[in-house]
Give the backbone structure.
Amino acid sequence: MTVLVHHVHREQWPIVFGRVGGRLGWWIESVLAPRLYRRARYVTVSEATRTELVELGIDAARIDIVPVGVEPTPAVRSARSPAPELLVVARLVPHKRVEHALAVLARLADRWPDLTLTVVGEGWCEPELRAEAERLGVTDRVTFAGFVDEQTKHERLASAWVHLVPSVKEGWCLVVNEAGGHRVPTVGYRSAGGLRESVVDGVSGVLVDDLEEMVTATAQLLEDRSTREAMGAAAARHAASLAWGASARAFAAVLAASARSASAAGARTALGPLAAALDRIATGDAAGPASVTGRVRLARLARGPRALEELAARRTD
């Protein structure tokens, strides 16, 4: 068995479920789950999450890191906005702390009279966030774009000057690198964990420790075009280094090792052929993960034992 964990939810439990529900959720995640999966291998997307899993008592030798893969940046029609524009892409839920982006906008509004913020995403906190924008006096400067399709998201990214990530926790935060593909730097919280790897601090963006620092860092990037553009270029290089194919091959290698271990331990399903098929993906054969066929193969792994047997039995798609 292989367990995929993007990040540990210690901070989110009480925010979303309150004191009692949060304590129960954290007990399930930190005590029950490690015992239940005590023989399983783990896969995560960042060293930050790996460290937190080890703190839960999970043997570091059972944890593999497979960095996030980023799709090639699509062509867009949008040009960079002539006026300064901030962007947040997130679910509108408490632990994403979109209200911090509203606060940044409000505190910088006097210095940049044409500064705006676009919020892409939907969630149950939208009414409260709209009310907060009104309280701060920035309603006319904020666009709540709601849920958008992939192309529209990239159009918004391409238009922005600075991307903000005020989340409590992120395992990686893929949109950081999607923004980077459009040469847009990110300002986010160091304490979020995975941002310490998706953002190269001081190079492709800026990591900060509190709201005051987020306001300051954002102001500096808005004010200093040369630094903003240099960080945007570095963000594009970082995003380009995170190829989907490499990520998928690494994940296939982890699953192959897990299948061989289960087979050796006497698993009910014959997993040897499956391990061989995964090995072929991991080594990048003609139908490997960089192709649509390889992605379909990996997607099937989520469908359970029957799908595994089907994949093991089929040499080609």
Notes: Residues 286-317 have pLDDT under 50 and may be disordered.
